[in-house]
Target: DUF2779 domain-containing protein
Amino acid sequence: MTQHRYLTKSRFRLAMECPTKLFYCGKTDEYADQSLDDPFLAALADGGFQVGALAKQYYPWGHEIRTLNVDEALEKTAELLKLDSVTIYEAAFRYENLFIRVDILRKQGRRIELIEVKSKSFSSEEEQTPFLGKKGSFLSGWKPYLYDVAFQAYVLGQAMPDHEVVPFLMLADKAARCPADGLNQKFRIRRNSEQRSFVTVSDQLTSQDLSVPMLKAVPVGDCVDKIRKGEGTDDFVARGFEGTVQWLADHYLRNEKITPVPGAFCRDCSFRATDPDVAAGLKSGFKECWTEAYGWQERDFEAETLFALWDFRDKDSAMANGKLKLVDLEEGDIAYKDDGKPGLSRTARQLVQLQKAKNGDMTPYIDRDGLQREMDSWRFPLHFIDFETSVTPIPFTKGRSPYETVAFQFSHHMVGQDGTVRHAGEYLCGERGRFPNFEFVGQLKKALEKDHGTIFRYSHHENTVLISIYHQLAESDLDADERQELMDFIVSVTESTGRNGTAWSGGPRNMVDLCHLVKRYYYDPYTRGSNSIKYVLPAVLNSSAYLQNKYGSPVYGTTEIPSFNFRNWQWIKHADDGTVKDPYSLLPLLFSDIDDRNQLLLLSGDEEQAIKNGGAAMTAYARLQYEEMGEYERSGIMTGLKKYCELDTLAMVMIYEAWRRWL
Model:
């Protein structure tokens, strides 16, 4: 029997990104999909499991519709709705070929509250609505969530026409302070025999735990009305909201592809096929769209598209003018601007990338004079540090707020003036329910205070994390002298633009941002426009004969180059085509019970995509915190985390070593 093709809220959201995606979604045996398809990992990454379970505690005594069978779910929901007053979790509704499940539904007479629970955050202390910009248009970051609720409200209204539907978004409130220690540990994740994940709520959960709501139901009826009227957005100009819903539902029901109209959003299309996907017989939805829209042939897809141009902000305009490949762009398409700072400005770097692409020049660009000036200001020994962090919607300890930064790991490499390299230290806290931030900073301070050497980070993350912990310390009840000592240390190695009246231009050992130096002084076509360290490292290794010689034998993790987590390790290995393999691909995957494809997505070198997917380290930490597992599995994850973080700081060292040798 053929399963009915309903347009659901998740498919509607997908179609609002690109209507053609409806045709590709769910066809895992036919089309490759590079998005994370494991609901367990997705929920772990954003805390969705715990948030959903906590939300129900604020609306107790509800009836949960657990069955996955659509007809059974509809029947059970209808039976419960005969009650004059009732709360239902996962209530099911169908209207024509539209189908929804409502996270939390409260019926009181003819009034129905539709509560969509999201792990996204807002602050109840802010007076203005978080959803609208200054000109009254919906903010892009909130659109998917509001469209989701609007779709559900429409279906529910059609299915229950004699009732008033009142929609809410239930969000994590960053202004709330957790009333008790260990709240997040009372929501644990388990898997059943069918590998379906579920949350168990501890019988130790108390009224005190729930006395200050960490989640708040925000009324969004006005926003839903605006969407239904087509106000605040131009996404429904052609057909109106209801017409768009029906148009999408009809095409999905008939399994009929909507004619692709490509745009800048194609850059993030997940329906792309890798070489292994093609070998497995999977097709690329992206290729099909561009073949239909532009008449591209297979050879056209071998060229870099305009999406490869780093930080290019005029994609739609260029595409409208038929400039689809990187080499199609002209210098005039880049609005050159000299920002007056040393090295390449943003647009100057784009021009370097474009010129190399047009000339077929694969040699690295390096501003020797500019980079030498930077290096001359550094003081030995050099320190390279990397942090791994998490942001949790349910706080670890009393007094903390949702989505405060939790810094659970760092790695630290040192380089001496004589060129010696060693893994100098590390920190990892995987203990359940523990808030590690102040110990984290104390251990970092101990590692770095032994000398006055220059400290390096890659991008802004480490600076942002330390500033966040600075404010956590300021509000803490830590011993006054210890607190001030840690805060002074943070000031000495960071720069702050100011919050709560605190700002400093940069302490005496303000960290040097290696990523910033990459952007200003170095470009390798091998990176394909990315500045992620997971792209820059392979590029540097393929360009540097010095690194290939030094790390081409198993010297790492010996007395020559000491390491905490590797023994006699060889970092340089070559692929069949002669290129150096990505060192990250040489490490064992973090998880033993998750398929390789999803693990590789979590380890994506694309920083934006990795953040969307939750990131391997963040997901691993979430598993350590919330999932029931044996000590052997915990130990394996901890070991994997240490190796990956150590490679992050070694990667920075290798970039430095290559630059030093070239200069």
User: Anything to note?
Assistant: Residues 525-662 form one domain.
